[in-house]
Each structure stands twice: as structure tokens, then as C-alpha cells.
From TrEMBL, chain A:
The keyword Protein biosynthesis does not apply. Pfam families: Proteasome. It is found in: Cytoplasm; Nucleus. The lineage of its organism: Eukaryota, Fungi, Dikarya, Ascomycota, Saccharomycotina. Signal peptide: none annotated. The keyword Secreted does not apply. Component of the proteasome complex. The 26S proteasome consists of a 20S proteasome core and two 19S regulatory subunits. The 20S proteasome core is composed of 28 subunits that are arranged in four stacked rings, resulting in a barrel-shaped structure. The two end rings are each formed by seven alpha subunits, and the two central rings are each formed by seven beta subunits. The catalytic chamber with the active sites is on the inside of the barrel. Keywords: Cytoplasm, Nucleus, Proteasome. It comes from the Eukaryota. Belongs to the peptidase T1B family. This is Proteasome subunit beta. GO terms for cellular component: cytoplasm; nucleus; proteasome core complex, beta-subunit complex. Gene3D superfamilies: Glutamine Phosphoribosylpyrophosphate, subunit 1, domain 1 (3.60.20.10). It comes from Starmerella bacillaris.
Automatic annotation (TrEMBL), chain B:
It comes from Starmerella bacillaris. It is an enzyme of class 3 (hydrolase). Keywords: Cytoplasm, Hydrolase, Nucleus, Protease, Proteasome, Threonine protease. GO terms for molecular function: threonine-type endopeptidase activity. GO terms for cellular component: cytoplasm; nucleus; proteasome core complex, beta-subunit complex. This is proteasome endopeptidase complex. Its EC number is 3.4.25.1. The lineage of its organism: Eukaryota, Fungi, Dikarya, Ascomycota, Saccharomycotina.
Length: 206, 268
């Protein structure tokens, strides 16, 4: 146990397609090398925004719940839905407010801006540095493997169907080379018209 | 900053005591330069952000606008740079609304150095601040501990030695705007190619007296990705999934507050 972000394991990836975004995570929850659960979902829905949290599981649950409260309050006060870039800045402020005693999480935000129709993905470090990307973002213990897969598989302007295949294979192949990522995969494909396709991947269970 | 929370401090400290390392944060292991010319001042930066040896962002923006006439370039911890410049730009806006004057560069500098000194170097922002105001054009550097420097040309970050080798040999007094732009981009390119923590493109910002500041995003792009010769397009249906556990649903444009139950309501 030398790194709190690597105790429970887990990874996530998000990609931009043509008028769509996809976000995917693995389902493993472990205590170092011991797998405790195979249905630990790391993607949370906040209206039209999908946020993945990887890292220390206790912090994943705490931060995702705190964000649920802040999102609900925003919608009640503002009387409108929250755009993805707003959600990203909210996550960033939440993390930076704990600059000197951080949550051990690595979040991703994915969504489509409801006014411009622009797909949006963004990743963060544990203290809230935003990395807004025009192609893909990755996080978690399989970060290196995901970067390798995504950098070679990713193409611009993919259809929702093609994006599903690409993000799934990126996650599955990366998980195969990380001992503490895997035990199933979950993919959300979000389209411009509001259609969300959630798919539970068949994957190796070792 | 309306007070940073130290709630997790003791927990993280005790984790640290049991052999836990703090997580890697994104750092802008960087080359940034600033250079004065006869009509104003220029800032320039590379666009690589790293987390350890991994390139976290290939095209990040390290030039921040503090005010329309004052910009700064940041090296060090990425989030510290983002937040400290965001905070300062708000404060300068409020200050200039209050005084009814355009903000001065020294105001930004003094304010930032007091903030950084207060945090004793733990807020890891290393900045080059440049701008024009009623007193002329200015160029300053500011270290995370709060010390400041003044100069006609400055460089900061892990690629600063590479950049300074160019600046020291080629800088002269009374540069024209075009000469200064060329000098700055050449200095950044020295960092891009000779410092491993710097890379990708060159961003450049020109601040001139009496003219709107101009940000040249991607001023030089010497490291464009080559077109791939072949693609890995998987056939649709390659990835197998469980029908049970998969679903299709729609997100409403405006979330319906009446029908969206709170989490506590869903617990039976």
C-alpha cells in the first residue's frame, strides 16, 4: 500500500465522436490484489452529464455524493440544467478546495452541451487541474495502457456505433494489461438528441 | 480564496505514515519566456503538461489573462497556476471596477506575491507576468515562495536554461515587435526540443500599448501528428455485451425537478 489511488484499482476512459460522446469504466473493486466486488460502477449521472471517478473507493463515493448535492442545488437555484463545462468547473473547484488535503480521485466528465450541441470531455488530477480534450481522456490505474490503446485506436468523427466499439476495445485491452482493472466493463454512449445507450460488456473475470 | 479545507489532512497524514505516497499531480514542466520590445511586451509558452513521465495534455494553454492589458505565463503545478490566475483576474476586475481605472501590472504582481508568500511555496505557481499600463510596459517573474524579478527578458520552468541560451545570445535592446516575436518563439522552441518536460506547440501573446492584447494560440506547431497510414476500425458488433444489464434511455433537455426523486426518496 504505497499509493492511495492504487489500493482499490479501477480505470475509466471517455471519447468524443461525431455528435456523440462515450464514457466507460471497469467494474472491479479490490483491496490490493484481492477482488472484493465485480459490480462497482464508477460512472455517475448528473442530468445530462456523466462523471467517472477512479481512485480510492471511499473518496469516489464521498465525492460523487457531494457532487450529487451540488448538482441538485444548482438546478434548483438556477432553474436550468447544468452544462458539461459547468459540471467540469464545479468538479475542479471541489477538488481544489482540498488542495492541501486532497480527495484521492481522478474524475472524468463527459456530456453534450445542450445549447451548442458540442460534445465535451474533460479529465482532472486529484487537485482539480482541468484537461479539456478534443479527442479522448483517460484516468485510473490503467492510465498508461489506456493512453496507448486510445492513441492508436482513436479516429475523429466516429458514429455512436463505431465509438462504442472503439471505446470498449480500448478499455478491455487496457484492462487486460492492468491486474487491478477489469472484472467487467460499463459503457455509456450519449448522443446529441439525448439518447443514452448503456451497455454492460462481457469481459474476462481474472 | 474563501478558505481551503484541511478536513482530510490528518487522514492523509496517517496514510502517509503507513508508507503512502502522495498522488502525482499534473505539472506544467515547462518553458515560458517573456520579452520586452519597443512598443510593448511579449509572453510565450510551450503547451505540454506532464504527470510524471506521462504527457497528460499535448496542447494545454499556459498563458493566462489577468486583465485585458495584463497576462501571465505559468510553470509548476498546473492546478495552482489555473486557480491562482483565475482568482487574481477576478480580484483585478473588482479592483478596476472599484477604482474606475485599468489595473496596473505592479498591482497584480504585489497581490500575487503576497498570496504565494502566505502559502510558503506550497502553492506551486511560478509565473512570468507582463502587461502595459499607465506607467508603461512591464515584465516580471514571480517564484512560488514570493520572490520577484524584473528584466527586459525572462525565462522560467524546466526548459528555462534552454530558453535563456537563446535569449542571452540573441537579445538586444530596442527590438521590433516582429523581432521579439521571433526571439520568444525561438527560445520556446529551444525548450520544446531540448527539455523533455516541454513540448508540442508554441503559444504567444503580444501586449501593446493602446492596442488590444493578441493571443496567438498555436503560433508555431512544429510537432503535428502525422497522418496514420492505416486505421483500426472494428466491425460493428465486435464487442460482446449482456442484453440484460444494458439499456437505452433519454435525458430530458431540462431536467424535470418534479419527477427527479432525491436519492433518499429512492431508498424503500
Amino acid at each position: 500500500m504505497s499509493n492511495p489511488s492504487e489500493i482499490n484499482g479501477g480505470s475509466a476512459v471517455a471519447m468524443i465522436g461525431k455528435d456523440c460522446v462515450a464514457i466507460a469504466c471497469d467494474l472491479r473493486l479490490g483491496l490490493q490484489s484481492v477482488t472484493v466486488s465485480g459490480d462497482f460502477e464508477k460512472i455517475f449521472q448528473y442530468g445530462g452529464n456523466f462523471v467517472a471517478f477512479t481512485g480510492l473507493a471511499t473518496d469516489v463515493q464521498t465525492v460523487s455524493t457531494e457532487l450529487r448535492q451540488k448538482h441538485a442545488l444548482y438546478e434548483m437555484v438556477e432553474e436550468r440544467s447544468m452544462e458539461p463545462n459547468t459540471a467540469a468547473h464545479l468538479v475542479s473547484s471541489m477538488l481544489y478546495s482540498r488542495r492541501f488535503a486532497p480527495w484521492f480521485v481522478g474524475p472524468l466528465v463527459a456530456g453534450i452541451n445542450s445549447t451548442t450541441g458540442e460534445p465535451y470531455v474533460c479529465s482532472f488530477d486529484s487537485i482539480g487541474s482541468m484537461d479539456v480534450s478534443h479527442d479522448f481522456v483517460v484516468t485510473g490505474t490503467a492510465t498508461n495502457q489506456l493512453y496507448g490503446m486510445a492513441e492508436s485506436l482513436y479516429e475523429k468523427d466516429m458514429s455512436p456505433e463505431q465509438l462504442f466499439e472503439t471505446i470498449s476495445q480500448t478499455l478491455l485491452c487496457a484492462a487486460d494489461r492492468d491486474a487491478i482493472t477489469g472484472s467487467g466493463g460499463l459503457v455509456y454512449v450519449i448522443e446529441k438528441n439525448g439518447k443514452v445507450t448503456k451497455k454492460l460488456l462481457k469481459s474476462r473475470q481474472d | 480564496m474563501a478558505g481551503l479545507s484541511f478536513d482530510n489532512y490528518r487522514r492523509n497524514k496517517s496514510l502517509e505514515a503507513s508508507g503512502v505516497l502522495p498522488p502525482k499531480t499534473t505539472s506544467t514542466g515547462t518553458t515560458i519566456v517573456g520579452c520586452k520590445f519597443n512598443g510593448g511586451v511579449i509572453l510565450s509558452a510551450d503547451t505540454r503538461a506532464t504527470a510524471g513521465m506521462v504527457v497528460a495534455d499535448k496542447n494545454c494553454l499556459k498563458l493566462h489573462r489577468l486583465a485585458p492589458n495584463i497576462w501571465c505565463a505559468g510553470a509548476g503545478t498546473a492546478s495552482d497556476n489555473d486557480k491562482v490566475t483565475e482568482l487574481e483576474s477576478s480580484q483585478l476586475e473588482i479592483h478596476s471596477q472599484w477604482t474606475g481605472r485599468a489595473p496596473r501590472v505592479v498591482t497584480a504582481l504585489t497581490h500575487l506575491k503576497q498570496h504565494l508568500f502566505k502559502y510558503q511555496g506550497h502553492v506551486g505557481a511560478y509565473l512570468i507576468i507582463a502587461g502595459v499600463d499607465v506607467t508603461g510596459s512591464h515584465l516580471f517573474s514571480l517564484h512560488a515562495h514570493g520572490s520577484t524579478d524584473v528584466g527586459p527578458y525572462l525565462a522560467l520552468g524546466s526548459g528555462s536554461m534552454a530558453a535563456l541560451s537563446v535569449l542571452e545570445s540573441k537579445w538586444k535592446e530596442d527590438l521590433t515587435k516582429e523581432e521579439a516575436m521571433e526571439l520568444c518563439s525561438e527560445a520556446i522552441m529551444a525548450g520544446v526540443f531540448n527539455d523533455l518536460a516541454s513540448g508540442s506547440n508554441v503559444d504567444l501573446c503580444v501586449i501593446e500599448k493602446g492596442k488590444p492584447s493578441r493571443l496567438h494560440r498555436g503560433y508555431k506547431q512544429p510537432n503535428q501528428r502525422l497522418q496514420k497510414q492505416r486505421n483500426y476500425n472494428f466491425d460493428i458488433g465486435t464487442t460482446s455485451y449482456f442484453e440484460a444489464g444494458s439499456e437505452v434511455f433519454y435525458i430530458s433537455k431540462q431536467s424535470d425537478l418534479e419527477t427527479s426523486a432525491m436519492e433518499v426518496d429512492q431508498v424503500s
